[in-house]
Amino acid sequence: MKRLAAWAALAFGVLYFLLPLLGMTEFSLKMRRGVYSLDAYAKVLADPRFQETFSYSVIMAIFTILFGVLLVVPTAYWVRLKLPRARPYVEFLTLLPLVIPAIVVVFGYIRLYNTSSWLPLTGTATGTNILLMFGYATLSLPYMYRAVDTGLRTIDVTTLTEAAQSLGASWFTILGRLILPNVLVAVLSGAFVTLAIVIGEFTLAALLNRPAFGPYMQLLGANRAYEPAALAVIAFGITWACMGLIQLVARLAPKPAIPVKD
User: Fold this and answer.
1) Predicted TM-score of the model (pTM)
2) What is the pLDDT of residues 140-152, one digit of tens each?
3) Is the dihedral of CA 66, 72, 78, 81 positive or negative?
């Protein structure tokens, strides 16, 4: 009886999430009256604005991931190695982006970095792009930090560090050639989640007036009928592909050679 109830709950959850997606997919195929076609997808993919905004968001995602790795990996490593008592406070700080709305973050950025401030980042396109990257990194911080911290739990950080230092390795060598390869799966998991966040984010890019994919989706949805549904299916496909890559990387990753002593 319990097994039947579990399968029934699973089936309900699957139908709850899949039926709207199937309905949206069917609607996106009805652009040509009377037959199913991929006309909506062809129009979206051929739209120069789609190519421009999607390319921009992918580039911003790459820079955001690199910045997030440079920020999170040394921080999580140092907290676990030298400041274990500070872990609750660091975890609390990394959770703040989940409870502070993105619109509050972006208005704070505009207030602090407008053209009349001491650091007028919004005065140039490059400065605004940097500001947007910081905003994306802030939104993805809870996921990136959790992924890296979980990866660090699978290795004995103290033993690895002491062994490397006994051989004369510098801190940069320890981080780049010892710690990072051991938590690479965790870093990639955080990177894929960051990519999904950047691709679909709307508030930061819209208020900073950047040509990102999120505002393009909103603009297309306000003016077209079938193309927005096709675009939403493409966005779902990108997100699911990222989730599949996370699972694939986790399965193919080698196990750490040194067991954890936690």
Assistant:
1) 0.83
2) 999 999 989 988 8
3) negative
